[in-house]
Amino acid sequence: MRKPVWALALLLAAVALATGGCAGRGREGLGERVSVVTTAYPLEFFARQIGGDAVEVRNLVPLGVEPHEWEPSPRDMADIGAGDLFVYNGAGLDPWAERALAAVQSPNLVVVEATRGMDLISASEGQAGEATTDPHVWLDPILATQEATAVRDGLIRVAPGQQKVFEENAQRLAQRLGELDQRYREGLAQCGRRTVIASHAFLGYLASRYDFQVIAIAGISTDVEPSPAQLASIAQQARELGQRYIFVEPLVSPALAKTLAREVGAQTIVLNPVEGLTRDDVAAGKDYFSIMAENLEALRLAMECR
Ligand SMILES: [Zn+2]
Fold first, then answer.
1. Could you list the residue range(s) of the whole structural domain that residue 91 is in?
2. How far does the centroid of ligand 1 lie from the alpha carbon of residue 273, in Å?
3. Same domain, yes or no: 155 and 230
């Protein structure tokens, strides 16, 4: 499935220099907007919220596409090099990002790795037993605030003249994230059960913040599928716990989760990892906060919270 991206790296470096490295971009005082390129929807959302009218944001992963297995095209690589600010998640969500940066070599590009310095949850999974980290930090409103702060600081580095606007917008965003944390804290405080079953292992940070357990069908990445023995063991646990709901997600086939649900007599409901929006989400005006609110309701239902 890999695209022949790296064979074109040298050519792209030239393209990126020609389009992005030219002098006199004049971002300040001339009304030119800061061009931001992101690798995942939550980062796009934070950049838009904080940058407001002063930025133009392009998220590389297209609508409806699941980011774990995505890789950039030559065009995407050129876009990274042509931007003012590149924000990637890190922690294993977008492992191609650092290779892409080495290839584009755009000297004026400001780069933000949004999870840098965070205490990451590590997990070792199947394939060759290599250790990986859990990248899904944005699902925890407290860590999401840290990512937003990293985005804010990147924007200020690119356009220091707009510092006050970015700080005010980031402050407003941080306040909304604080309120979201409060709603989760209260909503998940008193529940009949504290174990959920999810389609892939995206709930680590959320579960650790609000004190519940997660049984994941696939791994940290959506393409790490369980063996038949692992699936049988998950089914066994689900039966013992009397789980009534199994979470599925919008961008990944629900086939495995549905099979499991049938086997243990549970129902599937959506819990959205907020890794990307679909066209329908955009048409319905959904965003990070509305999806997080829907997720809280799904969690409260599955965990039988009062
Ligand atoms: Zn994921």
1. 6-182
2. 6
3. no
